[in-house]
Amino acid sequence: MGESGDEARDLPEDTVGLLAGLTTTRAIRRYRDEPVPQDVLRDILFAATRAPSGSNRQPFRFLVLTDGQHALRARRLIGDSARTLWAAKVEHDGYHRGSGTTAGSPKSRMAEVMQAYVDHLESVPVIVLPCLVRYRSPRPTEGGSIYPACQNLLLAARALGYGGVMTGFQRLAEPELRQVLDIPDNVLIAGTITLGKPAGGHGPVRRRPLGELVFADRWEHAPDWAVDPPGAAYTAAGPPSKE
Amino acid sequence: MGESGDEARDLPEDTVGLLAGLTTTRAIRRYRDEPVPQDVLRDILFAATRAPSGSNRQPFRFLVLTDGQHALRARRLIGDSARTLWAAKVEHDGYHRGSGTTAGSPKSRMAEVMQAYVDHLESVPVIVLPCLVRYRSPRPTEGGSIYPACQNLLLAARALGYGGVMTGFQRLAEPELRQVLDIPDNVLIAGTITLGKPAGGHGPVRRRPLGELVFADRWEHAPDWAVDPPGAAYTAAGPPSKE
Description:
Two copies of one chain form a homodimer. By secondary structure, chain A is α+β, with helices and mostly antiparallel strands. Chain A has two domains: 18-201, NADH Oxidase, CATH 3.40.109.10; 204-237, no CATH class. Chain A contains six helices and eight strands. In chain A, the strands form two sheets. In chain A, strands 1, 2, 3, 4 and 5 form a five-stranded antiparallel beta sheet that branches. In chain A, strands 6-8 form a two-stranded parallel sheet. In chain A, α2 runs antiparallel to α5. The N and C termini of chain A lie far apart (51 Å). β1 of chain A pairs parallel with β7 of chain B.
């Protein structure tokens, strides 16, 4: 593994197909306790920054937090914010009510995975803060110049045998994060991405049926071709219902 | 080609690798004059809807405009909006000044491609309006639940031999589009994606050097591993400078 960064290195050969990657990459929240090599980080970030943005302005920046002095302080801040936000969500979405009280139910399992994720957020192998440098006043569509790059980032991790997830868990810590990391006021901290080598088994991608998400010619008119391929795994939308 | 949509059909085999697709997919604005088969549309939209979203709520919807009665009206509205917006950009960004007056310069070539694109926007093979159904008041990070799916959509087009680009060219026509297409007020029209079979030659992806876009430990501190692979094609950021 070349760590010097002094000489340019080609991208590795692909082992996953493009359409396969797009349709089977899922959120990874449990990681092996091992660092992500700098070569891999370079490849993941290179793929992220090839994404499109409005007028190709590339207002996206990626702030990588591993083991530096400021990174360690930022990680603790994000961890605290995550635990507070998750505790509120457990209450609001009723994770400990209804089937959430039954061990092994999808709901209680999701709650367990999320609790373990926020409990150890400081120690995930890599945290990346995707940031948007604003050159004009905020507008609802400004995310079109940062989130395509975030998706490229997560897909590139998958391509290289890694995995991750994007959350908004930095939200409560934003003022402190700006101070610790020198992030200017005109920059939107667009999320918190965690990355690492997946640990244990992970289920399939679960999504709503295609006919609920795709319309043709008019709103809510599903075309007859909007039919999922065989083997699609379904879910209801969003967090658990409040039983 | 099965057009019935009555039976589930598997996804096709991949011919492009995941990392290769992420790093070489570029905006396609010139299309052959041929429709996109419904099988291909199904595959592209299936890949789009597998993208992640906040709490897996999947608030994204994709409104496909081909040759239906409402689609044709909407296409004309978007075309008019695009031409007005592009004319303003030509003036604002000085596309007809400086090197823009020299035939064959990058600036005048970009202006030609864009003018032809907006002049014939009504007749691109497919327009897709990516939409975000809001369940709470707008926030700057809400695009995190729609633009990853838009990027999946564009990458899936590439995987299947097609191409496209996302713009904000619907902006001036939004009130009329809501009427014609029955789009509710709580829905954000997040962009306009055009799709088709690429026509003619298309250049490489051009982006800023990695070291300008990736920081580690602190804002504006580029890590020494942020080095582009060999063969990366560079550009300055954004639209032409106002010479």
